[in-house]
Amino acid sequence: MSFGAGVPTVGVDGLTVDDFLLDVREDDEWEAGHAHGALHIPMSDFVARFGELTEAAPQDGRVNVICRSGGRSAQVTMYLVQQGIDAANVEGGMQIWEAAGRPVVNAKGEPGFVL
Q1: Model confidence over 60-109: pLDDT tens digits?
Q2: Residue 8's closest CA among 92, 89, 96?
Q3: How far apart are the C-alpha atoms of 4 and 14, rounded to whole Å?
Q4: Could you give the CA distance from residue 49 to residue 66 in angstroms, rounded to a whole number?
Q5: Which letter does DSSP use for residue 19 in this model?
Q6: Which of 57, 64, 105, 115 has its CB surrounded by the most CB atoms within 10 Å?
């Protein structure tokens, strides 16, 4: 999936456990499985909850935005860039995250899956 040259992107292999990750999938997707340590703000609530991101995000670091496959996260990434925030869309989203063998946990912290 390509969103053009205007959307900054990063591959799953370009992320470390210390990188800030924002998951914009809906609650049921998050509960089934997500990256441990990610901040969850569904895209449907994003503008109303924007302050949660600005409080949690590193001041001098990049916000890496992820969804299931990269579509929703690309939209949120562009919004963040327009707000002057250093952000990148995680290419392929949680599907590639899981396929790359990165850990996925459910809402209880147990092994999860990508919905």
Answers
A1: 899 999 999 999 999 999 999 999 999 999 999 999 999 999 999 999 99
A2: 89
A3: 19
A4: 17
A5: S
A6: 64
Exactly one of 67, 76, 96, 114 is catalytic; name it.
67
Q: Are 15 and 46 in contact (CB under 8 A)?
A: no
68 is catalytic: no
- 72-85 residue pLDDT tens: 999 999 999 999 99
Tokens representing 48 are 């109303």
Cα separation, 38 vs 94, whole angstroms? 12
The dihedral over CA atoms of 66, 106, 44, 72, expressed in degrees to the nearest 10, equals 20
Report the C-alpha gap between 73 and 67 in whole angstroms: 5
Nearest CA among 93, 83, 76 for reference residue 7: 76
